[in-house]
Amino acid sequence: MDIFRLIQDIKKHLKLSFDEVERWFDKDKATLNYPPSNGGWTVQQILEHIYLTNFYLLILIEKGSKKAMRNYLNLDLNLEMQHYSFDKEKFDKVGEYGAFEWIRPEHMEPKGELNLNEIRSLISQQYHQCLNYLDLMKNGEGLLCKTTMTVNELGKINVYEYIYFLSLHAQRHVIQMKNNELEIS
């Protein structure tokens, strides 16, 4: 696996996902606040949920990146890169809305405590945090730390895969927001 290509692919995916999320902040109030008939969240609540989930994932990504950089001193990065393969299919279901049961923790549920401009600013900062971690671990160091991800039984995933997961999670909710908007029409 070419780790440099993987990092570039994750950067592209992040840009596409975050650009799509960004567009939703400019929707009219009726679209942002429409409660779907299935009892789900409004677009504004979904945007807050994306921020909250990113917040908690970025805590794990920060810890993982620090550990990966420490591990760089003691582990053979070249050996890790030689044996690494990215199982894209395993992750792609994460980006599909409704592809599997997803029970999120209560602390990731929107509470309505932030206004739209605050959420927008925070999500933008989170995007740049992800890019900074990818730049920090630009030589493959992100392979040197794995953390368990229970969602969809992904198991032990490395720091790059955590960042990709974060991007897929946003993509998943873009689909949900589109479904809300379609229902209004």
Automatic annotation (TrEMBL):
Instruction: Note the superkingdom of the native organism.
Output: Bacteria
Q: Where is the DinB-like domain?
A: 28-177
For this protein, the record's SUPFAM superfamilies field holds: DinB/YfiT-like putative metalloenzymes
Q: Which InterPro entries match?
A: DinB-like (IPR024775), DinB/YfiT-like (IPR034660)
- One Pfam family, please name it: DinB_2
Identification of the protein by name: DinB-like domain-containing protein
- Organism of origin is Chryseobacterium glaciei
Q: What is the lineage of its organism?
A: Bacteria, Pseudomonadati, Bacteroidota, Flavobacteriia, Flavobacteriales
